[in-house]
Design brief:
single chain; alpha/beta; Ribulose 1,5 Bisphosphate Carboxylase/Oxygenase; 9 helices; globular
Length: 234
């Protein structure tokens, strides 16, 4: 195991290893663990009692964070005609149809989110092998396939994030930056956890939210009291 640096050890001492903090306290403790010179991402890992191998236990959704992610999101939109103009007016970074698809097939991936008008899915569908593995494939379930492309662009730019349980049943998602104050971190984390709780599969038997840990990119994990989360937000 790699030896931890002095700065990591110093901030790790501020986190009680065996304590599970309530949501507000967890965000306050998290703020004390900043150690990098850059503006670290605030991330959460939510371990769920689901088996994603079963279609009826897949957890997926999207949420517009109250205070955004703190990151500039580059948005690519597949649309034509008036819808393309609406996307541009809403602030989309790249807008196109077959021409944009050709660029993507050629290796252009200088964007963080892809939005598509429903009429463009025949074109976008052919990019599945490129966009799919990167988690960029538009999906109507999370609002990235939409007739209202302008609104979809505005939400993406305003801090909308997508979440999905991986093959271990864990949701990994960002909810802010180290530069956010503890109140903003709390508001964003609360909104995200509420969205994940609402996405609970109806078929699930037993405990749903099993473990929640928050951390900055370079910092130690801070454990959250899942019982408190479920009782107050569920």
């Amino acid at each position: 195991m790699a030896k931890k640096g002095k700065s990591y050890v110093k901030v790790a001492e501020k986190v009680k290893a065996n304590e599970h903090y309530d949501l507000e306290k967890a965000c306050a403790v998290l703020k004390e663990t900043k150690r990098a010179k850059f503006d670290e991402s605030a991330d959460v890992a939510i371990n769920l009692g689901v088996d994603p191998r079963h279609a009826d236990q897949m957890v997926r959704g999207a949420i517009v964070l109250p205070h955004g992610t703190g990151k500039k999101i580059r948005v690519a939109v597949f649309a034509k005609g008036p819808k393309a103009e609406e996307a541009k007016a809403a602030g989309a970074d790249f807008v196109g149809a077959e021409d944009l698809a050709a660029k993507v097939e050629g290796g252009f991936l200088d964007f963080d989110r892809v939005i598509a008008h429903p009429e463009m899915m025949a074109v976008v569908g052919k990019l599945g092998r490129v966009l799919g593995p990167r988690g960029l494939m538009p999906n109507p379930k999370v609002g990235t396939v939409s007739a209202d492309v302008a609104r979809a662009v505005e939400e993406a730019k305003g801090g909308k994030i997508e979440f999905r349980a991986d093959k271990t049943g864990t949701v990994h998602a960002p909810f802010g930056r180290a530069s956010f104050d503890k109140e903003k971190l709390y508001d964003n984390l609360k909104a995200l956890l509420e969205a994940v709780l609402k996405a609970k599969p109806h078929s699930l038997k037993g405990q749903y939210m099993k473990k929640v840990v928050v951390s900055f990119t370079m910092g130690p994990g801070v454990k959250v009291d899942t019982a408190q989360v479920v009782s107050t937000l569920g």
